[in-house]
From TrEMBL:
Organism: Candidatus Nomurabacteria bacterium RIFCSPHIGHO2_01_FULL_39_10
Motif ('HIGH' region): 34-44
Keyword Ligase part of the UniProt annotation: yes
Protein name: Cysteine--tRNA ligase
Chain segments annotated as transmembrane: none
GO cellular component terms attached to this protein's record: cytosol
Note on how the cofactor is bound: Binds 1 zinc ion per subunit.
Enzyme class: ligase
Swiss-Prot/TrEMBL catalytic activity: tRNA(Cys) + L-cysteine + ATP = L-cysteinyl-tRNA(Cys) + AMP + diphosphate
Keywords for the protein's UniProt record, in alphabetical order: Aminoacyl-tRNA synthetase, ATP-binding, Cytoplasm, Ligase, Metal-binding, Nucleotide-binding, Protein biosynthesis, Zinc
Cofactor(s) required for function per UniProt: Zn(2+)
Protein localization: Cytoplasm
Gene: cysS
Binding sites annotated in the UniProt record for Zn(2+): 32, 229, 254, 258
Every tRNA synthetases class I catalytic domain range: 19-333
């Protein structure tokens, strides 16, 4: 199978580029996953639905995809909140990991090749830090924490477009927190020396040989958040990978720091294509825990809304545009999705027993849309067109819809065909004979009888279509 020519918007170059992976036909793909300290809100899920759609497009276009999604199970927030609840970190994060896995299943998100837990890669993180110390890109501060020296890495800021020159006026500072913004461009923590607030969460790192003589060799502490993703992606996908995704809020500082750490350690370009999805807004403000303007997936399920309707609603917009969430819009999306399911159900009402073909004309258009930086809004409009097109047989329609749904993930394959009761089916078969014999009077009588049982029959040139009234 020939591979599709896909164009993606690359945050790094700020251009739409023709996708060409490092290894022909294979894609190494890393997505920043959740911090398992709470129920994610639906705004967070946009990143996973986007990454899933991207993966589905790559698979559809004939690529082999190795996809890694990490689970951040140790960081400032997981430690803080596990202690608030008086729980062991592992017990606490495992609970929210399970909830996350349930959620992504209900959103029809395909499982990645592997979920990587940060706590399983502490040694790999230490190894990168050692390399950075050796190369003089990292240093130990007076509190024994290890920091990355951003001024020693000449490409710092290339992803976010940050001009480090502008920051020169600022006194060189250090930031130990995992999350901060552009007003706080400073050296960031790679290894955080243990403090009381960390309780029983620590690892002993032997950085002795890479530190100035006389320094304490073993540093008890924990990794910073940014080094976790550098270590997990390189350990599972290699030093150079094709695609790395996340939300736009990951561009700075998280992904900028990942580049600094990874490229600083290996001396090679880390990621070929950086791709980021935009925010979900509520009343024009970003949906976030801190703004308290969020819905979780269980909030919308409690309202009786199918989570797939949320996926469908997001696909109606390009992943790079901001969307404003209102409940009524989601309800509208669910109504539309139900209509699509209904149309699909009706396709099965005829005795088809498979045998349909994907309509080539529509498939070509479909590919053109999804290959253009995942233009799902236009691809969805095309799906409606397929349903409406009377020139296509029901069997071909069904097969075409299922083909498109490999990318949409709306779950058409789980929709059961409408079941026609045996007595109705019998009348339809009888009517088929009268049609052939051009016995229109009898045919009309049979139609009325079918109607009285709650079904209607429509004549097309080569078949009768039966559906519930
Ligand atoms: Zn990450």
């Amino acid at each position: 199978m020939s591979l599709g020519k896909i164009k993606f918007y690359n945050t790094l170059t700020r251009e739409k580029e023709t996708f060409s992976p490092i290894k022909k036909g294979e894609v190494s793909f890393y997505s920043c996953g959740p911090t398992v300290y709470n129920y994610p809100h639906i705004g967070n899920y946009r990143a996973y639905i986007f990454a899933d759609t991207l993966k589905r497009v790559l698979l559809y276009e004939g690529y082999k995809v190795k996809h890694i999604v990490n689970l951040t199970d140790v960081d400032d927030k997981t430690i803080r909140d596990s202690q608030k609840e008086g729980k062991m970190l592992k017990e606490f994060t495992e609970f929210y990991t399970k909830e996350f896995l349930k959620d992504i299943k209900s959103l029809n998100i395909l499982s990645p090749t592997k979920f990587t837990k940060a706590t399983d890669y502490i040694n790999e993180m230490m190894e990168i830090i050692e390399k950075l110390l050796k190369k003089g890109l990292a240093y130990k501060s007076s509190d024994n924490s290890i920091y990355f020296n951003i001024r020693k890495f000449k490409n710092y800021g290339k992803l976010s477009g940050l001009m480090l020159e502008e920051q020169k006026e600022n006194p060189a500072g250090r930031i130990k927190k995992d999350e901060y913004d552009k007003d706080n461009v400073q050296d960031f923590a790679l290894w955080k020396a243990w403090g009381k607030a960390d309780g029983n969460v620590y690892w002993d790192a032997d950085f002795g040989k890479d530190l100035p003589r006389g320094s304490k060799a073993i540093i008890r502490g924990r990794p910073g958040w940014h080094i976790e993703c550098s270590a997990m992606s390189m350990a599972t996908l290699g030093e150079q990978i094709d695609i790395h995704t996340g939300g736009v809020d990951n561009i700075f500082p998280h992904h900028e720091n990942e580049i600094a750490q990874s490229e600083g350690a290996t001396g090679k370009p880390f990621v070929k294509y950086w791709m980021h999805n935009e925010w979900v807004l509520v009343n024009q403000k970003k949906m976030s825990k801190s703004e308290k303007n969020f819905y979780t997936l269980r909030d919308i399920m409690d309202k009786g809304i199918n989570p797939v309707a949320y996926r469908f609603w997001l696909l109606m917009a390009n992943y790079r545009t901001r969307v404003n969430f209102v409940l009524e819009a989601l309800e509208g999306a669910e109504t539309a999705l139900k209509r699509l399911y209904n149309l699909y159900q009706r396709l099965g009402a005829n005795p088809l027993a498979g045998g349909g073909k994907v309509n080539q004309e529509y498939q070509n258009k479909f590919k053109e849309f999804i290959e253009d930086d995942l233009d799902t809004p236009r691809a969805l409009a095309l799906l409606w067109d397929v349903f409406k097109d009377e020139k296509i047989s029901d069997a071909d329609k069904k097969t075409t819809v299922l083909d498109f749904d490999k990318v949409f993930g709306l779950g058409f394959e789980n929709i059961e065909a409408e079941k026609i009761p045996k007595e109705v089916q019998k009348l339809v078969e009888e009517r088929e004979k009268t049609r052939k014999n051009k016995d229109f009077q009898k045919s009309d009588e049979l139609r009325k009888e079918i109607n009285s049982l709650g079904y209607e029959v429509k004549d097309t040139s080569d078949e009768q279509k039966v559906s519930k009234i």
